[in-house]
Amino acid sequence: QVQLVESGGGLVQAGGSLRLSCAASGGTFSSNAVGWFRQAPGKEREFVAGINWNGDTADTADSVKGRFAISRDNVKNTCDLQMNSLKYEDTAVYYCAASRFMSVRPTSYHYWGQGTQVTVSS
User: Fold this and answer.
1) What pLDDT, in 10s, does the model give residues 25-47?
2) SS3 at position 78
3) CA nearest neighbour of 63 among 92, 41, 99
4) What is the pLDDT of residue 26?
């Protein structure tokens, strides 16, 4: 059983940056892929970025490509999402999730954090 806790959310002006962190405990985090997802009010949860178990494969959604980057540290059991050039439409609750294989589908992930709010003011 992997427990995930996100941190780093907050209020930022458009064009600014935030760094989200997902801290894992329990289970074998280093053998899991990690995904970052977000959900805005009234919208479905969507894939933002993912990284495989050892960090040699990563992917970002087209909507954030070139602005967001995902990384992980299997010694510290963390996975970070660096978000630059933030836009108003990036406003959402951001979740990290873990599963055996990286996927863009939320239903593929077994473990979820509680989420952290990111609000971008225009």
Assistant:
1) 987 889 999 999 999 999 999 99
2) strand
3) 92
4) 84
